[in-house]
Design goal:
Blueprint lengths: L1 E5 L3 H13 L3 E5 L2 H10 L4 E5 L7 H11 L4 E6 L4 H9 L4 E4 L4 H14 L5 H19 L8 H16 L3 E4 L6 H11 L7 E5 L5 H9 E2 L2 E2 L1 H4 L4 E5 L6 H13 L1 E2 L8 E2 L3 E6 L3 H6 L5 H7 L2 E4 L10 H12 L9 H9 L5 H16 L30 H19 L4 H7 L4 H11 L8
Parallel strand pairs: 1-2, 1-3, 3-4, 4-5, 6-13, 6-14, 7-10, 10-13
Antiparallel strand pairs: 8-9, 11-12
Helix pairs in contact: 5-6, 7-8, 14-16, 17-18, 18-19
Protein backbone atom coordinates (compact mmCIF):
# COMPACT_ATOMS: atom_id res chain seq x y z
CA UNK A 1 0.00 0.00 0.00
CA UNK A 2 1.47 3.35 -1.04
CA UNK A 3 0.91 6.30 1.30
CA UNK A 4 1.27 10.06 0.76
CA UNK A 5 1.60 12.12 3.96
CA UNK A 6 1.02 15.91 3.73
CA UNK A 7 1.77 17.91 6.87
CA UNK A 8 3.57 21.24 7.30
CA UNK A 9 4.76 20.20 10.80
CA UNK A 10 8.19 18.74 10.07
CA UNK A 11 8.69 16.64 13.21
CA UNK A 12 5.33 14.90 12.95
CA UNK A 13 5.71 14.43 9.20
CA UNK A 14 9.12 12.78 9.49
CA UNK A 15 8.06 10.67 12.46
CA UNK A 16 5.03 9.33 10.59
CA UNK A 17 7.13 8.64 7.51
CA UNK A 18 9.75 6.67 9.46
CA UNK A 19 7.23 4.73 11.59
CA UNK A 20 5.08 3.78 8.60
CA UNK A 21 8.13 2.64 6.66
CA UNK A 22 9.13 0.46 9.62
CA UNK A 23 5.67 -1.12 9.34
CA UNK A 24 6.42 -1.98 5.68
CA UNK A 25 4.38 0.81 4.10
CA UNK A 26 5.68 2.65 1.04
CA UNK A 27 5.56 6.29 2.15
CA UNK A 28 6.35 9.71 0.74
CA UNK A 29 5.98 12.72 3.07
CA UNK A 30 5.74 16.33 1.84
CA UNK A 31 5.14 19.66 3.53
CA UNK A 32 2.43 21.30 1.40
CA UNK A 33 -0.78 20.48 -0.50
CA UNK A 34 0.64 22.02 -3.68
CA UNK A 35 3.55 19.58 -3.70
CA UNK A 36 1.09 16.82 -2.84
CA UNK A 37 -1.07 17.64 -5.87
CA UNK A 38 1.98 17.52 -8.12
CA UNK A 39 2.97 14.10 -6.79
CA UNK A 40 -0.57 12.80 -7.23
CA UNK A 41 -0.36 13.75 -10.91
CA UNK A 42 2.92 11.86 -11.28
CA UNK A 43 2.38 8.75 -9.14
CA UNK A 44 -0.46 6.52 -7.93
CA UNK A 45 -1.14 6.42 -4.18
CA UNK A 46 -3.56 4.21 -2.27
CA UNK A 47 -3.96 6.48 0.76
CA UNK A 48 -3.52 10.21 1.44
CA UNK A 49 -2.93 11.26 5.06
CA UNK A 50 -3.26 15.04 5.31
CA UNK A 51 -3.44 17.76 7.93
CA UNK A 52 -6.46 20.05 7.86
CA UNK A 53 -4.82 23.33 8.89
CA UNK A 54 -1.98 24.25 6.52
CA UNK A 55 -0.69 27.35 4.71
CA UNK A 56 -1.28 27.84 0.98
CA UNK A 57 -4.40 25.63 0.90
CA UNK A 58 -6.82 24.58 3.62
CA UNK A 59 -7.18 20.84 4.12
CA UNK A 60 -10.85 20.82 3.11
CA UNK A 61 -10.07 22.51 -0.22
CA UNK A 62 -7.19 20.10 -0.70
CA UNK A 63 -9.52 17.17 0.02
CA UNK A 64 -12.12 18.41 -2.49
CA UNK A 65 -9.50 18.82 -5.19
CA UNK A 66 -7.95 15.42 -4.54
CA UNK A 67 -11.28 13.55 -4.51
CA UNK A 68 -12.38 15.31 -7.70
CA UNK A 69 -9.19 14.42 -9.59
CA UNK A 70 -8.42 11.09 -7.88
CA UNK A 71 -11.74 9.66 -6.62
CA UNK A 72 -10.22 6.23 -5.94
CA UNK A 73 -7.78 7.43 -3.29
CA UNK A 74 -8.58 6.92 0.41
CA UNK A 75 -8.13 10.07 2.50
CA UNK A 76 -7.44 10.21 6.24
CA UNK A 77 -7.38 13.71 7.72
CA UNK A 78 -5.48 14.92 10.78
CA UNK A 79 -6.64 17.82 12.92
CA UNK A 80 -4.94 19.43 15.91
CA UNK A 81 -7.61 21.99 16.62
CA UNK A 82 -10.27 19.83 18.28
CA UNK A 83 -12.50 21.01 15.44
CA UNK A 84 -14.68 17.97 15.16
CA UNK A 85 -17.10 19.96 13.03
CA UNK A 86 -14.38 20.44 10.39
CA UNK A 87 -13.40 16.78 10.61
CA UNK A 88 -16.99 15.69 10.08
CA UNK A 89 -17.19 18.11 7.16
CA UNK A 90 -14.17 16.30 5.73
CA UNK A 91 -16.06 13.02 6.02
CA UNK A 92 -18.91 14.55 4.05
CA UNK A 93 -16.49 15.47 1.26
CA UNK A 94 -15.17 11.95 0.95
CA UNK A 95 -12.57 11.44 3.72
CA UNK A 96 -12.40 7.87 4.99
CA UNK A 97 -11.68 8.81 8.61
CA UNK A 98 -9.96 11.41 10.79
CA UNK A 99 -7.46 11.43 13.65
CA UNK A 100 -7.17 14.15 16.27
CA UNK A 101 -3.64 15.32 16.99
CA UNK A 102 -1.66 14.48 19.03
CA UNK A 103 -1.84 10.78 18.15
CA UNK A 104 0.66 7.95 18.13
CA UNK A 105 1.85 6.38 14.90
CA UNK A 106 0.41 3.11 16.22
CA UNK A 107 -3.10 4.53 15.92
CA UNK A 108 -2.61 5.43 12.26
CA UNK A 109 -0.91 2.10 11.54
CA UNK A 110 -3.86 0.25 13.07
CA UNK A 111 -6.24 2.20 10.85
CA UNK A 112 -4.14 1.46 7.77
CA UNK A 113 -3.86 -2.23 8.69
CA UNK A 114 -7.63 -2.49 8.93
CA UNK A 115 -8.04 -0.60 5.67
CA UNK A 116 -5.58 -2.93 3.96
CA UNK A 117 -7.51 -5.91 5.31
CA UNK A 118 -10.78 -4.56 3.96
CA UNK A 119 -9.14 -4.25 0.54
CA UNK A 120 -7.98 -7.85 0.75
CA UNK A 121 -4.30 -7.01 0.51
CA UNK A 122 -3.25 -9.04 3.53
CA UNK A 123 -3.99 -12.66 4.37
CA UNK A 124 -7.08 -12.80 6.55
CA UNK A 125 -5.28 -14.90 9.16
CA UNK A 126 -2.57 -12.26 9.56
CA UNK A 127 -5.16 -9.49 9.76
CA UNK A 128 -7.18 -11.22 12.44
CA UNK A 129 -4.02 -11.80 14.46
CA UNK A 130 -3.04 -8.15 14.12
CA UNK A 131 -6.46 -6.88 15.16
CA UNK A 132 -6.63 -9.37 18.01
CA UNK A 133 -3.20 -8.29 19.23
CA UNK A 134 -4.19 -4.65 19.00
CA UNK A 135 -7.42 -5.24 20.85
CA UNK A 136 -5.89 -7.25 23.67
CA UNK A 137 -2.33 -6.04 24.11
CA UNK A 138 -1.88 -2.61 22.58
CA UNK A 139 -5.24 -0.84 22.79
CA UNK A 140 -4.37 1.13 25.92
CA UNK A 141 -1.11 2.30 24.36
CA UNK A 142 -2.68 3.53 21.14
CA UNK A 143 -4.09 6.58 22.85
CA UNK A 144 -0.89 7.92 24.20
CA UNK A 145 -2.10 9.62 27.39
CA UNK A 146 -4.29 6.71 28.50
CA UNK A 147 -1.38 4.89 30.13
CA UNK A 148 -0.12 4.28 33.64
CA UNK A 149 0.45 1.77 36.40
CA UNK A 150 -1.33 3.45 39.30
CA UNK A 151 -4.21 1.54 40.93
CA UNK A 152 -6.65 4.21 39.74
CA UNK A 153 -5.80 3.88 36.05
CA UNK A 154 -5.40 0.10 36.24
CA UNK A 155 -8.95 -0.09 37.54
CA UNK A 156 -10.07 1.77 34.42
CA UNK A 157 -8.09 -0.60 32.20
CA UNK A 158 -9.71 -3.59 33.88
CA UNK A 159 -13.17 -2.17 33.20
CA UNK A 160 -12.62 -1.46 29.50
CA UNK A 161 -13.22 -4.98 28.04
CA UNK A 162 -16.53 -5.47 29.87
CA UNK A 163 -17.70 -1.92 29.24
CA UNK A 164 -16.83 -2.16 25.54
CA UNK A 165 -18.70 -5.43 25.04
CA UNK A 166 -21.81 -4.31 26.93
CA UNK A 167 -22.95 -1.86 24.21
CA UNK A 168 -24.67 0.22 26.91
CA UNK A 169 -24.42 3.98 27.18
CA UNK A 170 -21.41 5.24 29.14
CA UNK A 171 -20.77 8.51 30.92
CA UNK A 172 -17.22 9.49 31.84
CA UNK A 173 -16.72 11.91 34.72
CA UNK A 174 -13.48 13.83 35.18
CA UNK A 175 -11.65 17.12 34.92
CA UNK A 176 -10.49 18.63 31.65
CA UNK A 177 -7.35 17.05 30.28
CA UNK A 178 -7.65 13.69 32.05
CA UNK A 179 -8.10 11.70 28.84
CA UNK A 180 -11.87 11.29 28.64
CA UNK A 181 -11.99 11.44 24.84
CA UNK A 182 -9.18 8.89 24.61
CA UNK A 183 -11.02 6.53 26.92
CA UNK A 184 -14.17 6.92 24.82
CA UNK A 185 -12.29 6.12 21.60
CA UNK A 186 -10.65 3.09 23.23
CA UNK A 187 -14.06 1.75 24.30
CA UNK A 188 -15.35 2.22 20.77
CA UNK A 189 -12.41 0.38 19.19
CA UNK A 190 -12.84 -2.53 21.60
CA UNK A 191 -16.56 -2.77 20.91
CA UNK A 192 -18.59 -4.56 18.23
CA UNK A 193 -19.12 -1.13 16.61
CA UNK A 194 -15.41 -0.55 15.93
CA UNK A 195 -15.88 -0.66 12.13
CA UNK A 196 -18.78 1.80 12.31
CA UNK A 197 -18.59 5.62 12.63
CA UNK A 198 -17.18 7.28 15.73
CA UNK A 199 -18.60 10.81 15.72
CA UNK A 200 -17.64 13.59 18.14
CA UNK A 201 -19.56 16.57 19.44
CA UNK A 202 -18.13 18.94 22.04
CA UNK A 203 -21.01 21.05 23.31
CA UNK A 204 -18.88 23.36 25.44
CA UNK A 205 -19.09 26.97 24.28
CA UNK A 206 -21.68 26.29 21.57
CA UNK A 207 -24.89 28.28 21.39
CA UNK A 208 -28.27 26.57 21.74
CA UNK A 209 -28.82 26.98 18.00
CA UNK A 210 -25.42 25.48 17.15
CA UNK A 211 -26.01 22.46 19.39
CA UNK A 212 -29.42 21.84 17.83
CA UNK A 213 -27.89 22.08 14.35
CA UNK A 214 -25.08 19.65 15.26
CA UNK A 215 -27.49 17.12 16.73
CA UNK A 216 -30.40 17.26 14.32
CA UNK A 217 -29.13 19.04 11.20
CA UNK A 218 -31.22 21.13 8.81
CA UNK A 219 -32.27 21.15 5.16
CA UNK A 220 -28.68 21.58 3.98
CA UNK A 221 -26.77 19.47 6.46
CA UNK A 222 -27.17 16.11 8.15
CA UNK A 223 -27.13 16.11 11.92
CA UNK A 224 -24.65 13.97 13.80
CA UNK A 225 -27.41 11.72 15.13
CA UNK A 226 -27.93 10.69 11.52
CA UNK A 227 -24.23 10.50 10.63
CA UNK A 228 -23.45 8.24 13.58
CA UNK A 229 -26.12 5.63 12.80
CA UNK A 230 -24.88 2.13 13.77
CA UNK A 231 -21.80 3.65 15.41
CA UNK A 232 -20.72 5.43 18.60
CA UNK A 233 -21.68 9.03 19.39
CA UNK A 234 -19.17 10.73 21.70
CA UNK A 235 -20.66 13.85 23.34
CA UNK A 236 -18.23 15.94 25.40
CA UNK A 237 -19.68 18.26 28.06
CA UNK A 238 -23.15 16.82 27.66
CA UNK A 239 -24.26 18.87 30.67
CA UNK A 240 -24.22 22.02 28.52
CA UNK A 241 -26.97 20.86 26.13
CA UNK A 242 -29.98 23.22 26.52
CA UNK A 243 -33.22 21.79 27.88
CA UNK A 244 -35.16 21.99 24.62
CA UNK A 245 -32.49 19.99 22.77
CA UNK A 246 -32.30 17.61 25.72
CA UNK A 247 -35.99 16.84 25.25
CA UNK A 248 -35.62 16.16 21.52
CA UNK A 249 -32.50 14.09 22.14
CA UNK A 250 -34.30 12.06 24.81
CA UNK A 251 -37.15 11.36 22.38
CA UNK A 252 -34.68 9.97 19.83
CA UNK A 253 -33.12 7.69 22.46
CA UNK A 254 -36.50 6.49 23.71
CA UNK A 255 -38.04 5.83 20.31
CA UNK A 256 -34.84 4.91 18.46
CA UNK A 257 -36.20 7.02 15.61
CA UNK A 258 -35.05 10.34 14.18
CA UNK A 259 -37.07 12.79 12.13
CA UNK A 260 -34.74 14.25 9.50
CA UNK A 261 -35.22 17.16 7.14
CA UNK A 262 -34.79 15.00 4.03
CA UNK A 263 -37.11 12.07 4.82
CA UNK A 264 -40.88 12.20 5.12
CA UNK A 265 -40.91 9.43 7.72
CA UNK A 266 -38.67 9.09 10.78
CA UNK A 267 -35.64 6.85 10.22
CA UNK A 268 -34.55 4.17 12.66
CA UNK A 269 -31.30 4.93 14.48
CA UNK A 270 -28.99 2.50 16.21
CA UNK A 271 -26.25 4.13 18.23
CA UNK A 272 -24.29 4.00 21.44
CA UNK A 273 -23.74 7.17 23.48
CA UNK A 274 -20.50 7.83 25.33
CA UNK A 275 -20.66 11.21 27.03
CA UNK A 276 -18.52 13.24 29.39
CA UNK A 277 -19.22 15.87 31.98
CA UNK A 278 -17.34 17.95 34.51
CA UNK A 279 -20.57 18.58 36.40
CA UNK A 280 -22.57 16.43 38.80
CA UNK A 281 -25.48 15.56 36.53
CA UNK A 282 -27.52 14.13 39.38
CA UNK A 283 -27.39 17.50 41.13
CA UNK A 284 -28.33 19.25 37.90
CA UNK A 285 -31.47 17.10 37.67
CA UNK A 286 -32.45 18.27 41.17
CA UNK A 287 -32.14 21.90 40.08
CA UNK A 288 -34.11 21.03 36.90
CA UNK A 289 -31.20 22.03 34.65
CA UNK A 290 -30.91 18.52 33.25
CA UNK A 291 -33.72 16.12 32.42
CA UNK A 292 -33.83 13.26 34.87
CA UNK A 293 -34.92 10.72 32.26
CA UNK A 294 -32.04 11.72 29.99
CA UNK A 295 -29.64 11.38 32.92
CA UNK A 296 -30.77 7.79 33.47
CA UNK A 297 -30.44 7.06 29.75
CA UNK A 298 -26.85 8.30 29.68
CA UNK A 299 -25.67 7.16 33.10
CA UNK A 300 -26.04 3.40 32.52
CA UNK A 301 -22.32 2.78 33.03
CA UNK A 302 -20.55 5.61 34.89
CA UNK A 303 -16.74 5.81 34.78
CA UNK A 304 -14.42 8.26 36.53
CA UNK A 305 -10.99 9.36 35.34
CA UNK A 306 -8.98 10.72 38.28
CA UNK A 307 -6.99 13.94 37.98
CA UNK A 308 -3.24 13.60 37.50
CA UNK A 309 -2.52 14.96 40.98
CA UNK A 310 -4.24 11.85 42.42
CA UNK A 311 -2.10 9.45 40.37
CA UNK A 312 1.36 10.94 40.86
CA UNK A 313 2.95 7.52 40.40
CA UNK A 314 2.09 7.76 36.70
CA UNK A 315 3.80 11.11 36.12
CA UNK A 316 7.27 9.68 35.47
CA UNK A 317 5.80 7.08 33.07
CA UNK A 318 3.93 9.79 31.18
CA UNK A 319 7.03 12.01 31.07
CA UNK A 320 9.12 9.29 29.44
CA UNK A 321 6.26 8.44 27.09
CA UNK A 322 6.02 12.04 25.87
CA UNK A 323 9.81 12.24 25.55
CA UNK A 324 9.61 9.27 23.17
CA UNK A 325 6.92 11.05 21.15
CA UNK A 326 8.55 14.48 20.91
CA UNK A 327 12.12 13.25 20.59
CA UNK A 328 11.90 9.93 18.73
CA UNK A 329 15.43 10.08 17.33
CA UNK A 330 17.29 11.48 20.37
CA UNK A 331 17.88 9.80 23.71
CA UNK A 332 16.85 12.79 25.83
CA UNK A 333 16.77 11.96 29.52
CA UNK A 334 15.09 13.80 32.36
CA UNK A 335 17.08 14.09 35.56
CA UNK A 336 15.60 12.91 38.89
CA UNK A 337 15.57 16.46 40.28
CA UNK A 338 13.41 17.57 37.34
CA UNK A 339 11.05 14.61 37.82
CA UNK A 340 10.71 15.61 41.50
CA UNK A 341 9.69 19.16 40.52
CA UNK A 342 7.15 17.91 38.00
CA UNK A 343 5.76 15.38 40.47
CA UNK A 344 5.17 18.05 43.12
CA UNK A 345 3.28 20.32 40.74
CA UNK A 346 -0.53 19.77 41.03
CA UNK A 347 -1.22 19.83 37.24
CA UNK A 348 -4.52 21.73 37.07
CA UNK A 349 -4.52 21.06 33.32
CA UNK A 350 -3.86 17.37 33.96
CA UNK A 351 -2.22 15.18 31.29
CA UNK A 352 -2.77 17.70 28.51
CA UNK A 353 -0.75 20.27 30.45
CA UNK A 354 2.03 17.76 31.17
CA UNK A 355 2.20 16.85 27.48
CA UNK A 356 2.55 20.52 26.49
CA UNK A 357 5.29 21.09 29.06
CA UNK A 358 7.35 18.11 27.86
CA UNK A 359 7.00 19.25 24.24
CA UNK A 360 8.16 22.70 25.29
CA UNK A 361 11.18 21.34 27.21
CA UNK A 362 12.24 19.10 24.32
CA UNK A 363 12.00 22.01 21.88
CA UNK A 364 13.87 24.51 24.05
CA UNK A 365 16.63 22.12 25.22
CA UNK A 366 17.82 21.22 21.71
CA UNK A 367 18.56 17.59 22.51
CA UNK A 368 20.20 18.06 25.91
CA UNK A 369 19.06 16.32 29.09
CA UNK A 370 16.39 18.07 31.16
CA UNK A 371 17.27 19.25 34.68
CA UNK A 372 15.30 21.01 37.42
CA UNK A 373 16.79 24.32 36.26
CA UNK A 374 15.07 23.85 32.90
CA UNK A 375 11.58 23.51 34.40
CA UNK A 376 9.48 26.63 33.66
CA UNK A 377 9.36 28.99 36.60
CA UNK A 378 5.55 28.99 36.72
CA UNK A 379 5.65 25.33 37.75
CA UNK A 380 7.80 26.21 40.77
CA UNK A 381 5.74 29.12 42.05
CA UNK A 382 2.86 28.94 44.55
CA UNK A 383 -0.10 27.16 42.96
CA UNK A 384 -3.81 27.28 43.75
CA UNK A 385 -3.32 24.16 45.83
CA UNK A 386 -0.56 25.80 47.88
CA UNK A 387 -2.60 28.99 48.24
CA UNK A 388 -5.35 27.08 50.03
CA UNK A 389 -3.54 27.90 53.30
CA UNK A 390 -3.29 31.61 52.50
CA UNK A 391 -5.10 33.69 55.18
CA UNK A 392 -8.58 34.54 54.03
CA UNK A 393 -7.94 38.28 54.30
CA UNK A 394 -5.00 38.18 51.88
CA UNK A 395 -5.89 40.28 48.87
CA UNK A 396 -5.57 39.33 45.24
CA UNK A 397 -3.08 42.20 44.74
CA UNK A 398 -0.88 40.95 47.59
CA UNK A 399 -0.67 37.52 45.98
CA UNK A 400 0.22 39.05 42.59
CA UNK A 401 2.84 41.27 44.23
CA UNK A 402 4.40 38.28 46.02
CA UNK A 403 4.48 36.24 42.82
CA UNK A 404 6.09 39.12 40.90
CA UNK A 405 8.75 39.43 43.63
CA UNK A 406 9.59 35.73 43.37
CA UNK A 407 9.90 35.96 39.59
CA UNK A 408 12.20 39.01 39.78
CA UNK A 409 14.40 37.35 42.41
CA UNK A 410 14.60 34.12 40.43
CA UNK A 411 15.58 35.94 37.23
CA UNK A 412 18.29 37.96 39.00
CA UNK A 413 19.75 34.83 40.60
CA UNK A 414 19.60 32.96 37.31
CA UNK A 415 21.53 35.73 35.50
CA UNK A 416 23.82 36.63 38.43
CA UNK A 417 22.41 40.12 38.63
CA UNK A 418 22.48 40.98 34.92
CA UNK A 419 19.34 43.09 34.50
CA UNK A 420 19.27 42.95 30.69
CA UNK A 421 19.52 39.16 30.65
CA UNK A 422 16.99 38.87 33.48
CA UNK A 423 14.50 40.98 31.52
CA UNK A 424 15.03 38.79 28.46
CA UNK A 425 14.54 35.65 30.59
CA UNK A 426 11.12 36.92 31.67
CA UNK A 427 10.24 38.23 28.17
CA UNK A 428 10.01 41.78 29.57
CA UNK A 429 11.24 45.07 28.18
CA UNK A 430 14.41 46.14 30.06
CA UNK A 431 12.73 49.37 31.20
CA UNK A 432 9.70 47.47 32.51
CA UNK A 433 11.95 45.02 34.31
CA UNK A 434 13.96 47.82 35.95
CA UNK A 435 10.75 49.45 37.19
CA UNK A 436 9.57 46.14 38.66
CA UNK A 437 12.98 45.52 40.24
CA UNK A 438 12.93 48.96 41.85
CA UNK A 439 9.64 48.12 43.60
CA UNK A 440 11.09 44.98 45.18
CA UNK A 441 14.77 45.90 45.56
CA UNK A 442 14.61 45.97 49.37
CA UNK A 443 12.83 42.62 49.65
CA UNK A 444 14.85 40.29 47.45
CA UNK A 445 18.35 38.87 47.58
CA UNK A 446 20.58 37.56 44.83
CA UNK A 447 24.27 36.92 44.41
CA UNK A 448 26.00 39.61 42.36
Amino acid sequence: MKILVVDDEKLKRMTLRDDLRESNYDVIAVESPLIGLQLLQQETFDVLVTDLRMPQMHGIEFLKTVKKEHPQITVIVMTAYASVETAVEALRFGAYNYIKKPFSSDELILMLDKLKALRGKTPIEKTQSSIKTSDTDQETSLYQTLIGKSPQIQEIFNMIPNVASADSNVIIYGEEGTGKSLLAKTIHLRSSRKHQPFVNLNCFGLSAEAIALELFGNQDRQGKLQLVNHGTFFIANVDTIPLDSQAKFLAVLNERKLQTFTETEPIEVDLRIISTTRENLKEKTKSENFLEDLYYQLNVIPMFLPPLRERKGDISILINHFLDIFSPHQAIRIKPDAVDVLTQYPWPGNISELENIIERLVTVNNGTDITAEDIPIELKLPTPQKLDNTPSMTSFHDIIKSTERELIAWAMRKTQGNKTQAARLLSMKPSTFRDALAKHINHIDWEE
